[in-house]
Amino acid sequence: MSATLKIFLSLLTSDKGRKVLGIIVCIILSPLLVASMFLSGFSGGALDHNKATINAVFNDLPISENAPQEFKDQIHEMVLAFQKVDNEIGEMTKKLEDGTNLDDQYIKSILFAEKFGDESFKASTFDAKEYIKQTVNIEEREIIIEDDPTTKEDESSVTTIEVAIPIDRKTLHDRSSSFLSVSIDSKEEEKILQVYTLLGNIIEDESGKLESGGSADALVKSLLPESMKKEFVGGSYGSPFTDGWRDKVTSEFGRRDPITLPDGTVTSVGHSGMDLGAPHGTQVLAINDGEVIAVKHTSVGLGIYCVIDHGGGNISVYGHNSRILVSVGNKVAKGQAIAEVGKSGYATGNHLHLQLYLNGNLSNPKNVLE
Q1: DSSP 194-213
Q2: 169, 184, 207: which is the final residue of a domain?
Q3: Reduced to 3 states, what is the DSSP secondary structure of residue 320?
Q4: What range does the domain containing 285 cover?
Q5: 301 and 345 Cβ atoms separated by less than 8 Å
Q6: 141 and 199 both lie in a single domain
């Protein structure tokens, strides 16, 4: 038996030895520590560590002085890279079509999830300009310049400009895989979403938006009188998902068997909406034109949810999201992405709770959705 193996076995036979061995392993693996924690989940100490790391990288907050130097160096490189990314996003934003925007946090979440812990990654050699080019499609558009001072009086000129159009996440993953020389498969997509969601939760916690709770039903009832004064936007109600809703129903509107939630509480037999199961991060769409009249970030009930007024006492509620993509006062169009599926609040898994009021009355969404 080798001397190294003897030492290893002796360390395993005592509590003190196992602690020493653990410290040695952490030191050896420190550059990869965060990446492995994201792969293993967000429970216990890993969750606190991930929050501290994300705060250090995304919000440029200090990390513990006791952290290994290799770990601090990785954070420093990523902070510098993010600064370059922010500058390039600012430049690209000038070319965006009206009404569109780049999700800078998601773009940086990809970079963090795929490159943090990679000792070869250096901000000095990272081409942020080319990276941001991967996030859009560029189209050339001709525009007319009225009363161009370089032309004769009462004449106009035509010029060509570049317009940037944000791409969907699947395309973004494919392009990022190629650009970053990684393979973003389903497991990597989940890791990116974990970073993105945890970042969103940190932002909400830091900004004081995490609310104490309150009944969504009570909130909507308080908003109905104003909705009744407005004219209904008209039209039909569409699907809250791009690929339809009928095969996603996990719990119907109306009477149901009580459900025991993770915290031990039991639901009532009356279900105020319809539950639709979908993977974490799936985009939730507005089912009709309207105005966002409430956005709530709670840890109970419907959790993170938003409310859209369609006028005439017609109101839709979207609950248990992981993120909200709109703000109070925003005008939204039917089919527009307004949130992302999650399991916030009292939920047993990832799904959308869709609640609908028609002419002021709580109604079954199934009866009107296309």
Answers
A1: HHHHHHHHHHHHHHT-EE--
A2: 207
A3: strand
A4: 211-367
A5: yes
A6: yes
